[in-house]
């Protein structure tokens, strides 16, 4: 999270969030980390979320998780981005490299984000459970500590086969979603493809540009459309998006030569 590329309001918000976590969790708190676009240097003001992982020693009581939600929700700590996506993990879950969600509590809150607070059992099946293993893989590779040890010392990515399963599930989710297929789906597919081929995570726009510059046969036009849409242009053609996602999904699912 290069300081020169992030709005000071975001860094101030993260500092206050970490302070409130420290006050509420005390010695149970092991670390607070940014993931997602902030960690991958792809944060876009006005569009990106703030992704935060909180690491704790052991399971939290319901009263503690409720107090954390109250302290961090938009009404009590205004988010300077589209919204906050915060997930609390026990240290053993962060280090396990599992596919399961495994979180203690998740909180979605913000000025342009529907509120959500709950445990894994509260999450609707239609929203997918694959995001958490993907997020922990990004944290293991690039997470930025607001406080605590380096993220790579406490988060472990699922192994390549399991991670490929999660990435395929993410593309299936996009293909089945009621939300119209658009630029985010294309760039998510590019990120999945790039991670599978290179073993490295990039922010979604950077992954789109990297796939465009690669020798792999892809529908370059739909990636160009997606990148333009992310900058404010018209949405890419949904039929073309669907074909692109299906092609990437089939590539990821194909047996290794």
Low-confidence stretches: none
Main β-sheet description: 6 strands, mixed
Give the N-to-C terminal Cα separation: 37 Å
Report the sheet-strand fraction: 5-15%
The number of distinct β-strands equals 6
Query: In which order are the strands of the major sheet placed?
Result: 5-4-3-2-1-6
Measured as a percent range, the helix fraction is 40-55%
Class by alpha and beta content: alpha+beta
Mean pLDDT across the residues is 93
Question: Given the structure, what is the number of helices?
Answer: 10
* Gyration radius over CA: 18 Å
Q: Which word captures the global form?
A: globular
Q: H/E series, N to C?
A: HEHEHEHEEHEHHHHH
- Tally of structural domains: 2
How do the helices and strands line up, and which of them pair or pack?
Blueprint lengths: L7 H18 L3 E6 L1 H4 L10 E7 L5 H11 L11 E7 H4 L8 E8 L2 E6 L12 H12 L1 E4 L12 H17 L6 H16 L5 H9 L7 H11 L7 H16 L4
Parallel strand pairs: 2-3
Antiparallel strand pairs: 1-2, 1-6, 3-4, 4-5
Helix pairs in contact: 1-3, 5-6, 6-7, 6-10, 7-8, 7-9, 7-10, 8-9
